[in-house]
Design brief:
Elements: E1 2-5, H1 6-16, E2 21-24, H2 31-40, E3 44-47, H3 51-64, E4 70-74, H4 78-82, H5 84-92, E5 97-103, H6 119-123, E6 129-132, H7 139-151, E7 158-163, H8 164-168, E8 170-173, H9 190-202, E9 206-210, H10 212-216, H11 220-230, E10 234-236, H12 262-270, E11 273-277, H13 283-286, H14 289-293, E12 297-302, E13 316-319, H15 322-338, H16 346-358, H17 372-377
Helix pairs in contact: 1-2, 1-7, 3-5, 9-15, 11-15, 12-16
């Protein structure tokens, strides 16, 4: 095997995992890693004005395309603490980003050395995994595990902290034979999907709630196809906005306390069944839970087992990646439609569209001074 520094091995892992761009701000404790990036090559670096900004840039990069993972790099101490807001944002929205920080030498970590903050402890509550790697030979495997964790189950961020002497120590590593670890993504069974569709088919005024998990799984087209097969209107959450086009006849509006539509709220209150796919039932979407849940049945499909029942107990839950579930939903719904066993939802869909046409926020104000809504309307 080849000998190289632990930092160079880490960069090789980044390349093998598909990383070709990173965001960050150099500094003394992370400069060996930057030197390794320059030596190995293949990763473009975008210099941020501030490390918190770099963490948000990494999050934005992940969001731009399914499969992307944004990387944020910073030095020891305040660079790591500056990343915390970006890490929390990524955790809250289930966005995988990798934050890499420099650290004081191992021998000085307990001696209040310059900028030797315990970033592993600070970042732990806002990441899937935060680790200070103390053994140089473990560095490439820590990065390997980080990518598996970020991609598995509910996606989220990881922080890897590298003491400067760990970065510079030579280790044995063979990048040519490196392989990424498979990500864990649970899949719904046909029996589960058939039961969920049977519950939907028994209802009179069903809705689909599309969450960010649909976008994370790159399954928006499948969500739209399932809605069209069943004729069931769709309410996206804020994180699921874009899963179905705003001008689609089955787009029923958004619901909740913020960024909601009057017609969306009215449609939710008129429904008797809700199937949530890849969503969290966050309170910005649900508002008062008693109002949101009263008089309707719920099916919840989510990749994270402990998310089902966390906000309220659904009538039926399925642990599954959104894409895997929707592929089966489309298959089973297609078979039922071909056999003439799906209800006609056209009148319910038209009722939702009528609300969408009529229950609009007021924008025609004549008061002086001029309201912003009036200027925007004109």
């Amino acid at each position: 095997m080849a000998r190289m520094t632990a930092a160079e091995a880490a960069v090789h892992v980044l390349r093998k995992e598909g990383i070709d761009v990173a965001f960050g701000v150099p500094g003394a404790a992370i400069n060996p890693f930057y030197a390794a990036m320059r030596k190995v090559g293949g990763i473009d670096h975008l210099l941020a004005r501030h490390v918190e900004g770099a963490s948000h840039m990494a999050e934005g990069y992940t969001r731009t395309k399914a499969g992307n993972i944004g990387v944020c790099i910073g030095t020891s101490g305040p660079a790591g603490t500056d990343m915390i807001t970006g890490l929390y944002s990524a955790t809250a929205d289930s966005i995988p980003i990798l934050c890499i920080t420099g650290q004081a030498p191992r021998a000085k970590l307990h001696k209040e050395d310059f900028q030797a903050v315990d970033i592993q402890a600070i970042a732990g509550p806002v990441t899937k995994w935060a680790v200070t790697v103390l053994e140089p030979a473990q560095v490439p495997r820590a990065f390997q595990q980080a990518f598996q964790l970020m991609r598995s189950s509910r996606p989220g961020p990881v922080l890897i902290d590298l003491p400067i002497d760990v970065q510079m120590t030579e280790i044995e590593f063979d990048p040519d034979t490196y392989e990424p670890l498979p990500a864990y993504k649970p899949s719904a069974s046909r029996a589960q999907v058939e039961k969920a569709i049977a519950m939907l088919n028994e209802s009179e005024r069903p809705l689909l709630v599309a969450g960010g998990g649909v976008i994370n799984a790159d399954a928006s087209d499948l969500l739209t196809e399932f809605a069209e097969l069943t004729g069931v209107p769709v309410i996206p959450t804020l994180m699921g906005w874009g899963t179905i086009p705003d001008d689609h006849p089955l787009m029923a509006g958004m619901v909740g306390l913020q960024t909601s539509h009057r017609y969306g709220n009215a449609t939710l209150l008129a429904s008797d069944f809700v199937m949530g796919i890849g969503n969290r039932w966050a309170n910005r979407h649900t508002g008062n839970l008693e109002t949101y849940t009263a008089g309707r049945k719920f099916v919840h499909v989510d990749i994270e087992p402990t998310q089902i029942g966390r906000i309220f107990g659904p009538d039926y839950g399925i642990v599954s990646d959104a894409k895997a579930a929707l592929e089966l939903f489309v298959e089973v719904a297609g078979e039922l439609k071909a056999a003439g066993k799906l209800k006609d939802r056209s009148s319910w869909a038209e009722e939702c569209q009528e609300r969408k046409r009529t229950l609009l926020r007021k924008t025609h104000f004549d008061e002086v001074p001029v309201k912003p809504q009036r200027s925007m309307r004109k």
